Amino acid sequence: MFPCKIIYKDLEFLSSEHLYQWLKVPNTQEGKWWKDKIREAVHGKVAKKLATNPKCPKVDKFYEFDHIKLDRMKLAVYLKFIQNKNLVELLRETGDEELIEGNVWNDTFWGVCNGVGQNHLGKILMKMREIIWEE
Q: 111 is in which domain, residue-wise?
């Protein structure tokens, strides 16, 4: 949700959340309207709300988004850091600490809620940190 400019396929996104949600929508006539609205949303929370609207077409109607969502998030996070060098230093400052996407909305896939969760976003950020250290 952190606001930062990301360019993907010559389009500008206002956060990695915008890009991730945009990637959920198929490249169809109907999907184009939703993709534009998601990309132009004033905040990542608004982009997510649009993408989860029952009327919004979903990629998973054509193939299983669940099988690719980790790769899509990795792409969004990678672009976030390689295009926003100021964020690289913030990530480096975390040292070798375990990064946990803590939340109170019971997202146990991307994060941890009440001590339970797979913490995939935290793992992606730690992997990004490893990549940054290697450079």
A: 84-135
